[in-house]
Amino acid sequence: MNFESFQLDSSILKGVREMGFEEPSPIQAECIPAVLRGEDVIGQAQTGTGKTAAFGIPLLDHVDIRRRQVQSVVLAPTRELAIQVSEELRKIGRSKRVITLPIYGGQSIGRQIKALKQGVHVVIGTPGRMLDHLRRGTLKLDDVEIMVLDEADEMLDMGFIDDIEAVMKFLPESRQLLLFSATMPQGIRQLAQKYMRKPRYITVSRGEVTAPVIEQVYYKVLENAKLESLCRILDSEEVSQGILFCRTKKGVDELAEALTARGYLAGGLHGDMAQQQRDRVMNAFRRGDVELLVATDVAARGIDVGNISHVINYDIPQDSESYVHRIGRTGRAGRTGIALTLVTPREMKQLRSIEIEIGDRLTNRELPSLEEVAERQQQVLTEQLEEIIQSDDPASIFQEMVEALTAKYDPEKVAVAALQMAFADRFTSGNDAVYDFGETGASPGMVRFFINVGRNANIRPPELVKAIAEQSGIHPKKVGRINIYDRFSFVEVPDEAAPFVFEALRQTKINGARVNLEPARPRNRN
Ligand SMILES: Nc1ncnc2c1ncn2[C@@H]1O[C@H](COP(=O)(O)OP(=O)(O)OP(=O)(O)O)[C@@H](O)[C@H]1O
Ligand SMILES: [Mg+2]
């Protein structure tokens, strides 16, 4: 099967080739001919399998560019998706000179009116703004032959049904209607019955709703240790780019801020932000300047960014549809992806019901230990260094410095000092605080206190033990084992010593660095 066999306009074929598409995906193979034949189609296929082009290619093929009228209209649930779909259709239709225009709320309506006046062939928009233009008379859909509802089920779920039906009233009777989504719950059938003529159901998901290329994992975490748990995961995984989903807008703001404060390249996205800000974050994410996009479900549907290696459900999704679409932001167009879900003890039930609905089990993984995080950071650093060593740049401005230093000192010492100067910061964070991880990772009968020792505090475990012992009166042996790593340090002590150690830590001052214990609390026993 290839694109040539559809007998598409040569300019559209050129557009498809320019996109780098070599052969049609399964949903495209079935939908393109059906839409070209004029059928109404309900298309369901897993996330990231090319549904946009499945409706986009025949829709663009259908456009008669000599007529400067809107001939196709696509509705999408979010602004970002409308922009993205418009962009993909613009690219595929470029050789044919098809003019596409996204229209969505939050953008100057005057500018949209101006653009519409110049004449466009395809409009892609969110239902509310589309309706606004129709009522003002600044958008005419009298000549529309194809209408598409992308993420149809989501638009029904979001309560857009009235708006959608209102938009449809502006369309001629004899239009083709296409519905697309990775999930098609029952509600869709009613819409189909009402508005479609002999709809063709095209489903290619073979019983699996989630894309098989995505590795699905969950971590058990404690509510008050979520942020720390997340940071450990981020520091031990190879995340090229990731989307982190939160339940609420406030949660997005807080997490984006907390991650930024810890030196991650993070940006927030939710529906209460000004459109300019939304655009700025989205563009930065697409460029790769933002590595972690922290978002509400506004980014769960349709968003296609090539390099996303991880989707992390910082808050577990409300339902299985949300889960399927969220994790579908990775593992797109045949690439692999990793989906990680943080689950608190209270949310285990929720996880089980998602598993039942998607018909799949998530793999449970232990949070990486501090040792693993430290190892991973060392490994990354070593790889980066090796890359520089192998690049063998003879013009390095550091060559002379090193020659001078190695004439005086042991080369090994010089290297260690250089690394310390360059990277000591990376192995600590600027935030002085202690977190109680409760039972996470602690040996039976022991409690762990997690200490964030702060930037360059230079605390050595024996000194800490000594200080605790001296200041608390607890025998040094009873203070227990203390490990100091990069971002976190921890003290593991017997249950009964915990209250004393807690108190001692609160008052401990070492090398002038105050060990601050603010959010700590006794062990969570449930
Ligand atoms: N035939 C093809 N060959 C290679 N890549 C393709 C092909 N068709 C589409 N793609 C690319 O695959 C990616 C995913 O496509 P698309 O966004 O249309 O997926 P989708 O099925 O709509 O997913 P979702 O359910 O998440 O909206 C895009 O980057 C797109 O350009
Ligand atoms: Mg899509």
From TrEMBL:
Keyword Calcium tagged: no
UniProt short sequence motif Q motif, positions renumbered to this chain: 1-29
Stored PROSITE patterns: DEAD_ATP_HELICASE (PS00039), HELICASE_ATP_BIND_1 (PS51192), HELICASE_CTER (PS51194), Q_MOTIF (PS51195)
GO molecular function: hydrolase activity; RNA helicase activity
Domain Helicase C-terminal: 213-381
Keyword Cytoplasm among record annotations: yes
Sequence ranges assigned to domain DEAD-box RNA helicase Q in this UniProt record: 1-29
Gene3D superfamilies reported for this sequence: 3.30.70.330, P-loop containing nucleotide triphosphate hydrolases
Pfam family membership, one: Helicase_C
Stretches assigned to the Helicase ATP-binding domain: 32-202
UniProt keyword annotations, A-Z: ATP-binding, Cytoplasm, Helicase, Hydrolase, Nucleotide-binding, Stress response
Enzyme Commission numbers on file: 3.6.4.13
EC class name: hydrolase
UniProt similarity note: Belongs to the DEAD box helicase family.
Name of the protein described by the UniProt record: RNA helicase
Annotated organism of origin: Desmospora profundinema
